[in-house]
């Protein structure tokens, strides 16, 4: 059965988004419109349509492989990039299946590497929020973070303490109530838990006045 072109919308100077049968979308270059004689309200034969979709799969896969040469990506990031370019969901899924099978896409590897490089530079909440915004599976993030921070239970307190010491200006002391409240607010905005904040505050106070605590 032939497919009807219901809309052609310009994306960029050289690319358009073609809507077929009122639902399917295919991003094409303007030169391809001429190549396949595609026009609004026109028809596309089944053979041509399948050929176009096969070409889209190859194009999307090539684009992803180029991106993954530079750095690791989460599956969610790949999805967002392809969706923004107008690729249909089934082609996106097929590309993701290939990338996962060939180990080009591996969310567990990405999360683990991120924790190794940044887990002790940011609060646990900041790390988790970043990964979730990037499209990582929330459950996978929770499990990886739990394992990572259980292996270094004092790392968050030590990080909060270092950040707090760096934040305090010369002459400032946490014995001053207003400075103390500002310090707590600063660490809270960084994503640290209340328990970690109090431990860090206590450690800084102890350094300020070791004989009084």
Quick structural overview:
The chain is of the alpha+beta class and 213 residues long. Helix content is 61%, strand content 10%. A hairpin with a 3-residue loop joins strand 2 (15-20) and strand 3 (24-29).
Describe the structure.
The protein is α+β, with helices and mostly antiparallel strands and 213 residues long. 61% of the residues lie in helices and 10% in strands. The chain contains 10 helices and 4 strands; from the N terminus they run βββαβααααααααα. The protein has a 4-stranded antiparallel beta sheet with strand order 3-2-1-4. Strand 1 (3-10) and strand 2 form a beta hairpin. The longest helix has 25 residues, at 46-70. The model has no long low-confidence stretch (mean pLDDT 92).
Keywords:
213 residues, alpha+beta, four-stranded antiparallel beta sheet, 10 helices, 4 strands, 61% helix
Q: Strands, helices and their partners?
A:
Blueprint: E1 3-10, E2 15-20, E3 24-29, H1 30-35, E4 43-44, H2 46-70, H3 75-84, H4 89-101, H5 107-118, H6 124-133, H7 138-150, H8 155-167, H9 177-189, H10 194-208
Antiparallel strand pairs: 1-2, 1-4, 2-3
Helix pairs in contact: 2-4, 3-4, 5-7, 6-7, 8-10, 9-10
């Amino acid at each position: 059965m032939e497919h009807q072109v219901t809309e052609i919308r310009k994306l960029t100077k050289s690319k358009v988004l073609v809507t077929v049968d009122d639902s399917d979308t295919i991003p094409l270059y303007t030169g391809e419109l001429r190549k396949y004689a595609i026009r609004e309200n026109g028809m596309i034969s089944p053979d041509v349509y399948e050929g176009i979709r096969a070409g889209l799969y190859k194009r999307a896969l090539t684009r992803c492989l180029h991106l993954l040469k530079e750095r690791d990506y989460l599956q969610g990031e790949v999805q967002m990039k392809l969706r923004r370019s107008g690729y249909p969901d089934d082609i996106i899924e097929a590309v993701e299946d290939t990338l996962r099978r060939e180990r080009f896409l591996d969310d567990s590897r990405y999360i683990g590497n991120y924790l190794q490089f940044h887990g002790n530079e940011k609060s646990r909440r900041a790390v988790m929020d970043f990964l979730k915004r990037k499209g990582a599976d929330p459950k996978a993030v929770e499990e990886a973070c739990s394992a990572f921070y259980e292996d270094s239970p004092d790392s968050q307190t030590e990080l909060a303490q270092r950040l707090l010491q760096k934040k305090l200006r010369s002459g400032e002391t946490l014995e001053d109530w207003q400075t103390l409240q500002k310090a707590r607010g600063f660490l809270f905005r960084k994503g640290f838990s209340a328990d970690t904040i109090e431990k860090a505050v206590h450690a800084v106070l102890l350094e300020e006045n070791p004989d009084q605590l």
